[in-house]
Amino acid sequence: MDAGNDLEPNHPNDNGDHEVQGDLVDMADEDEILAAVVEILEGGSDEEEEDMGEEEIDEDDSDSDDESTESGNEEEVLTLTGQERAWALEIKTAVEAPNSGIRPVCDFEYAQYALVTKGDLQEALRCLKGMQLFRSHYQVDDTVSQAVSALEQFIALMPGTFLMVDKCPDTLEGIVVVDISKYLPEVAQTPSPGHSDLEHNWKIHILFWYYVIRTAQPGFKSIRKGIVALVETADAGWDNMDMSFEQRTFAELWAHYPWIAKSTRVYNSGLVSTIWVSLLKRFISNQHFQAIRMGCEVGEDDVNRDPTRPKLKLSELYLQPGANRAGRCLLLRATELLDARRVHEESFRL
């Protein structure tokens, strides 16, 4: 089974066969790229941000009394509004109908699709079918052990890329922190010595992204709130960018996985990362694109910050006191979050 052919992107890209390596501008029309770059630099998504803020207030009002906001290993009380439950039951009924062609999932996952698609039954079923293909092709079993192994293998494959996964202790948004300057598409697309599977490294890469987002969604609050991604790009160059690689990842995973991109904050961005983000617009969803904020800096809200000091990188904060110890702590926290999700999946009933 060729996953690249069977898993079709939700927003197909006419130039999907082009490579970014070499002449990047061949990927798209120059005017289109420039227009996207201008939109990014001007921050043309304030209206979208305001709309998202209003929606959060409504959601918080509906369940703030039912879900804990304490830090640590707190138990989240899983509750749905009447409307959310109706959406989830509609999805479950459609999936479990004769000849649906979709394998049933647990009630927690039906609720996850409902919270993300918000009553769009056909979109939920499309995503379920796509994720069924993904799980089958990559032999995903959704166990904590497979998830932790996937994260650990990715850390070994691309050291310094994966910096943190957690949920905000106050708002319970999922948080993922990565350093794109350590992210090497060529490594993921190169056969690994000693492995007969030519796509061994690719599978490590794509299972990492699947499980890291899943880790950041231990309960309904984090699913509703969405994922906040912090992306370091200070030392990123052309070796870290490959649009055919990104498009395949989107076609196989992101086009189907149920999640909300709350915000993607790009730190220490330059020309390369700005062009890279502008090209992503050609196939990622508009909601995900509008969530991107370029030009972020560590401590940018600190009025006492010394402007003459060199800009901090996210890696300088998250790889403390050292990369090895930080990696061990990272995997321990990921295991806690995955265990919490496992308990919720086993116990929740619609």
From TrEMBL:
Domain of life assignment: Eukaryota
InterPro entries: CRAL-TRIO_dom_sf (IPR036865)
Acidic residues bias locations: 44-77
Region (Disordered): 1-80
Biased composition range(s): Basic and acidic residues: 8-21
Protein known as: Uncharacterized protein
Originating organism: Seminavis robusta
